C-alpha cells in the first residue's frame, strides 16, 4: 500500500481531467453560457426599448398638448403630440395606423378615438393630463394660482428619520445572496451525485479492486471528492463570473455591492459544503453495486437537502434576520447554503459566521471519518446492497 497524500493528488487529477474533458461538462457549461448570453441580449433589448405613442389633438383639446407631454415620462412613454386640422382627418390617421389615438372636444372631458382599445400607459397619460387641466381650471375659477398651490404642496410632507439608514444596495445584496445559495445548491447536488455514480460505476466494473491494490480506501475516497469537487468549483467560477458579467452589463449590479466578499464566502463555503455532501454521497454510493439502485440510497440525502433549501430560501427572502434562517444557517448541513447569502446581505454578525464555520468544519471532519469507514467497508463488496449496520462495522485493511 502506498501511504501519504501523493496518491490522493494523482486520483484527484485523474478525476478532474476526465470530467472536464467529458462532453457532459463541456456541453452543459456551454449551454448555460449560451442561455446567459440570450438572457443578456433580452435584458439589453428591454432596457434600450421604450414605449412610444403618437396622439393627435384637435379643436379645444389642443390645450392638452402641454399636460400630455408632461405626463408621458411618468409612465415611461415617449409621446408625440400631433395637431390635426379636424376630427375627420384625425380619425382617418388613426385608422391608417399613423396615430395611436385622437383626442378632441372639451379638454376636461375629451373624446378619445382609437382603432380598438387604448394602450394602458397611454390611457393613464390622457387621464393624468385631463385631470391636471380640470384641476387647474377649477382653481383658477376660484382665484387660486395652480402654480402657487403646487409649490406649497411640494414643500409639505413628512420627514422620515430612521434609526438605521436604509441600504441602497439591499436589493443587489439580496440578489447576490440568493444567486449564491442557488449555485451552491445546484453544484453540490449535481457533483455530489456524480461522486456517488462514479463509485457505483467503479464497483460494477471491478475497477475499484485494481485501484485499491495500490491505494487505501480513504485515499481513493478523498481523491474522488477533491477531483470532482474541483470540477464543480471550476464550473461554479465560470457560471458565476458569466452571471456577474451579465448583471453588470444589464445595469442590475454595480461596484461596491459586496461582490468580492460574496464571491470569497461562496467559494469557501462551497469547498466545505462539497466536502461534506460528496463524502455522504460517496459513502451512500458504496452501499450498492448497480446504477439502478443508486437513487434509492441517495434519495434520503437529496430530499433532506431539497427541503432544507426550499424552507431556507423562503425564510431568507421573507426575513433574513429572523430566528428561523439564523438557526438554519448555523446548522452544519445547511450552513454552506445559507451563510454566504446572509453574509452578502450583511445580516450575519461575525460571531455567527465564526460559529457556523467551526461547527461545519467539525461536522465535516466527523462525516469524513464516518463516511470513510462506510466506504472502506462497502466499496469492495458487490452483489446485494450492503446494510448500514454492516457498513459501519469495523473497517478491514
UniProtKB/TrEMBL annotation:
Question: Which controlled-vocabulary keywords does the entry list?
Answer: Membrane, Transmembrane, Transmembrane helix
Compartments (UniProt record): Membrane
Bilayer topology reads: Multi-pass membrane protein
The record's Pfam families line, in alphabetical order, gives:
ABC2_membrane_3 (PF12698)
Record InterPro entries: ABC2_TM
Q: What is its main location?
A: membrane
Q: Does the keyword Transmembrane apply?
A: yes
Q: Does the keyword Lipoprotein apply?
A: no
List all membrane-crossing ranges.
Answer: 24-47, 174-200, 221-247, 267-288, 297-316, 322-341, 353-376
Q: Where is the ABC-2 type transporter transmembrane domain?
A: 24-370
Q: Which PANTHER family match?
A: ABC TRANSPORTER PERMEASE (PTHR43471), ABC TRANSPORTER PERMEASE PROTEIN NATB (PTHR43471:SF3)
This chain's protein is named: ABC transporter permease
Amino acid at each position: 500500500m502506498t501511504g501519504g497524500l501523493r496518491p490522493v493528488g494523482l486520483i484527484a487529477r485523474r478525476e478532474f481531467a476526465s470530467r472536464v474533458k467529458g462532453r457532459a461538462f463541456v456541453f452543459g457549461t456551454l449551454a448555460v453560457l449560451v442561455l446567459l448570453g440570450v438572457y443578456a441580449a433580452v435584458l439589453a433589448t428591454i432596457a434600450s426599448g421604450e414605449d412610444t405613442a403618437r396622439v393627435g389633438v384637435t379643436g379645444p383639446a389642443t390645450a392638452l398638448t402641454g399636460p400630455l407631454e408632461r405626463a408621458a415620462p411618468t409612465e415611461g412613454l415617449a409621446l408625440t403630440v400631433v395637431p390635426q386640422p379636424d376630427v375627420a382627418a384625425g380619425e382617418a390617421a388613426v385608422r391608417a395606423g399613423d396615430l395611436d389615438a385622437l383626442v378632441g372636444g372639451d379638454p376636461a372631458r375629451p373624446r378619445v378615438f382609437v382603432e380598438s382599445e387604448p394602450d394602458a400607459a397611454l390611457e393613464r397619460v390622457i387621464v393624468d393630463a385631463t385631470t391636471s387641466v380640470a384641476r387647474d381650471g377649477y382653481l383658477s375659477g376660484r382665484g387660486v394660482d395652480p402654480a402657487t398651490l403646487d409649490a406649497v404642496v411640494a414643500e409639505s410632507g413628512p420627514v422620515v428619520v430612521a434609526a438605521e439608514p436604509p441600504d441602497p444596495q439591499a436589493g443587489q445584496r439580496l440578489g447576490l445572496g440568493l444567486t449564491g445559495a442557488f449555485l451552491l445548491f445546484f453544484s453540490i447536488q449535481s457533483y455530489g451525485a456524480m461522486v456517488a455514480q462514479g463509485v457505483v460505476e467503479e464497483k460494477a466494473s471491478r475497477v475499484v479492486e485494481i485501484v485499491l491494490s495500490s491505494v487505501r480506501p480513504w485515499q481513493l475516497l478523498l481523491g474522488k471528492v477533491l477531483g470532482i469537487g474541483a470540477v464543480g468549483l471550476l464550473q461554479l467560477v465560470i457560471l458565476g463570473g458569466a452571471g456577474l458579467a451579465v448583471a453588470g452589463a444589464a445595469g442590475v449590479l454595480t461596484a461596491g455591492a459586496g461582490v468580492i466578499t460574496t464571491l470569497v464566502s461562496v467559494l469557501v463555503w462551497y469547498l466545505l459544503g462539497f466536502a461534506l455532501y460528496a463524502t455522504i454521497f460517496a459513502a451512500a454510493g458504496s452501499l450498492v453495486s448497480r446504477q439502478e439502485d443508486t437513487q434509492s440510497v441517495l434519495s434520503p440525502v437529496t430530499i433532506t437537502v431539497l427541503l432544507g433549501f426550499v424552507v431556507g430560501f423562503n425564510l431568507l427572502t421573507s426575513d433574513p434576520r429572523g430566528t428561523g434562517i439564523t438557526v438554519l444557517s448555523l446548522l452544519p448541513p445547511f450552513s454552506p447554503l445559507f451563510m454566504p447569502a446572509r453574509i452578502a446581505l450583511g445580516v450575519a454578525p461575525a460571531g455567527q459566521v465564526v460559529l457556523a464555520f467551526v461547527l461545519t468544519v467539525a461536522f465535516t471532519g466527523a462525516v469524513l471519518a464516518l463516511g470513510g469507514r462506510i466506504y472502506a467497508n462497502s466499496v469492495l463488496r458487490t452483489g446485494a446492497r450492503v446494510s448500514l449496520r454492516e457498513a459501519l462495522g469495523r473497517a478491514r485493511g
